[in-house]
Amino acid sequence: MKTFSAKPSDITHDWVVVDAAGVPLGRLASEVAQLIRGKHKPTFTPHMDGGDFVIVLNASQVRLSGKKMAQKTYFKHTGYMGHESHTPAQDLLAKHPDRVIEKAVFGMLPKNSLARQKLRTKLKVYAGTEHPHQAQQPTPHTLVTSKADS
What we know:
Elements: E1 15-19, H1 25-37, E2 53-57, H2 68-71, E3 73-77, E4 84-88, H3 89-95, H4 97-108, H5 113-122, E5 123-125, E6 139-141
Parallel strand pairs: 1-2, 1-6, 2-5
Antiparallel strand pairs: 3-4
């Protein structure tokens, strides 16, 4: 048997819509990261960009479990000594809900230039239900949930 390696002619990029309303952040991020990488496709090749474009709607309604809404903080450093900033998840979710999902998905991707490129071009996050990508005719994607959530 030979190992399959996808060529650019074998790869197709679809558009997928994911609704984040009431979904735990980590579960949403891991599912979106798999869609962006293309791991759900039989033609998955780690060094090729074979993933789908993902549109995440209702980012402001994503759920954080436990006490994470009050206790989780996002770290930022300006590059100057002592200029570090810790933003609570509650504040970031209120002001920029798209950044919360982008940071979570980035954490689930491998840390290389292909992953950064995929995140920049393939992930579209919107706080509400409206998006400007109707012309691409995206297909809705239902998230896989465990039996404990049911």
